[in-house]
């Protein structure tokens, strides 16, 4: 009886990782879950969205430059 249980346990230990590897490497699974999730997290670039980001970066750069120039002006007066 003990040998049969050990054989069953060994088959279970070996078959579970193999089955999970087989399931996770199915093309349908990959397309359905992984690629769809990636597109939700990182959507394709839209031209208008990209332009908004570029404008925002430019505004932040100008604001930082003005702050630095203002600090330099205050330091030179002292």
From TrEMBL:
Bilayer disposition of the protein: Single-pass membrane protein
One GO cellular component, as annotated: mitochondrial membrane
Pfam families according to UniProt: Pet100 (PF09803)
Keywords for this protein: Membrane, Mitochondrion, Signal, Transit peptide, Transmembrane, Transmembrane helix
Position of the signal peptide: 1-27
Protein's cellular compartments: Membrane; Mitochondrion membrane
Keyword Transferase: no
Family: Belongs to the PET100 family.
Protein name, as recorded: PET100 cytochrome c oxidase chaperone
């Amino acid at each position: 009886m003990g040998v049969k249980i050990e054989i069953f346990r060994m088959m279970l230990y070996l078959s579970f990782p193999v089955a999970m590897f087989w399931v996770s490497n199915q093309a349908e699974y990959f397309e359905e879950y992984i690629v769809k999730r990636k597109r939700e997290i990182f959507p394709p670039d839209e031209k208008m969205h990209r332009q908004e980001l570029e404008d925002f970066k430019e505004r932040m750069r100008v604001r930082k430059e003005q702050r630095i120039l203002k600090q330099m002006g205050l330091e030179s007066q002292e």
